[in-house]
Amino acid sequence: MCQSSFKGLSEPLCRRCGRMLNELPIAYYEGEYCIDCVQWNKKKSPLIRNCSLYKYNKFAKEVMALFKYRGDYELHKIFTDDFAQLYKVYSPENPVLVPIPLSKERMYERGFNQAEALASLLPAEVAYPLTRKHTEKQAKKTREERLQNHRVFELVDPELVTNRNVILIDDLYTTGVTLHEAALCLKDVAAAIYSFTIYR
């Protein structure tokens, strides 16, 4: 697999979600923030910043299909060096990693949690304070349906992240709903909340 086919994210980026602003019409960003992040700010999301490695292009989608949907677990290791570098540059002090959980049904279907696999690449404590309700796959939903998909997470063990700097781990940031909703669940207990993903 040729890692040179992954495309990095180029400046200017949205200061909150890491989206490439030069790919957006001028009406879709305000200053240094994309319009989605302006809306998340209005909803008082506590997610401070998302950092991603690559643009979600055609090659990235093919890799994602192999990794996530066809069960090629070992593929996560191709991100080891780049993900560790992202962590080194952007990690807050003494963080705890929180992989975005799967529902029990999705875990059974897939056999592993891709976010948990990615978290294993980083040199930090991993915690599981959240559970997730079973819903239709995000990939099958329209953008509008994703944005209406609320309260899928439940905080079941707050002590794991109380007064800690949290980094949410997931494979992909699209609309941001998954990560922002997870962050909102942790809002009252975590000291600060960030997220790392492979793709944006």
Automatic annotation (TrEMBL):
**Which parts of the sequence belong to the Phosphoribosyltransferase domain?**
109-192
One protein family per Pfam: Pribosyltran
According to the UniProt entry, the coiled-coil residues are none
Q: Which family does it belong to?
A: Belongs to the ComF/GntX family.
Instruction: State the protein's name.
Output: Phosphoribosyltransferase domain-containing protein
* Organism for this UniProt entry: Priestia veravalensis
